[in-house]
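@channel sequence for tomorrow's demo:
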Amino acid sequence: MNGLVAADVGNSSIKLGWFTSLDAACPTPEREATFTADQIGSPEWMSCVATNESMSSTWVTASVNKTAAAKLHQWVTSQQQHCISLTHESLDLETAVVLPERVGIDRLLAAVAVNQLRPPESAAIIVDSGTAITVDAVDVSGVFQGGAILPGIHLSAKFLFDGTDQLPLMEIPKTGLTHPPSIGKDTSKAITSGLYWGTLGAVKELIASQAESLHCKSASIFVSGGNLPWVDLLGGQVQRHGSLVLSGIAIAAKGMFKG
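C-alpha cells (generated this afternoon):
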C-alpha cells in the first residue's frame, strides 16, 4: 500500500485524512480536508483529492450516513481505486453495549484511537462534536462502555427556530460560539447564552457522571471535533485532537493490512 485516504462520512460533512505511513503507534493525518456529499466530484473536490498521491492510495471509509457513503464509494471505485468500508467487526475493540452494530462507527473509532493515547492505568472519556455531540466512556481495560448523545449547537439552534413562532434562527460561526454573558440582554444573546452554557453544562455533568460510573476519580478526557469553544472550561487534564475518528480509521486499517 502506497498510502491511505481515511474518510469519515458524517451526517453533515465528509472529512478526509491522508496518511503516507501507518508505522506510528497512533498516526495523525499529514493533511485533512472537509467536504459535503454534494461536493464529491466537483472541481473543488478534484483539485484537492485527484492527485497522484490520492490515486495511488487505498481508501478506507467509516460512515454514519448511508447515502453520502454510497456516493463516495461510487466515486472512488469509478476511479479504479480500492475502497474498504469499516464496520464494528473490523475493529480491535471490545464493547459492553447491547447492540454494537447499532453504535455509530465514529464513536467506536474514536475509542480505538483513545486506547492508543490514554495511559494504561487510566479510563477515558471522549467528547466528540459534530452534528451531534457524543460523550463516551472507555474503562481502564479499554472496553467501550457506551455513553450519551445530545444535539450539537447548530442542531439545537435549528430546533429552537423550527419549534417556535418568534425565536430567530441563530447563525453559528463554523468556529463555534464566543464566550457569551450568562444573562442575555436581548433575544439573540439569550439564545446564544443558552446554547453555550447549556451545552457546556450538559457535557461537564456527563463527564462527571461517567467518571463516577467508571469508579475513576481522574479519567483522561479527550476532545475532538469542532464548535467546542468552551473546552478550556471543562477542567481536568483535557487533550485536544483534530479528528480521533480519522486516527481510528488509520489504526484499524493498519491492523487489517497486517492481517
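heads up for whoever presents: The longest strand covers residues 144-151.
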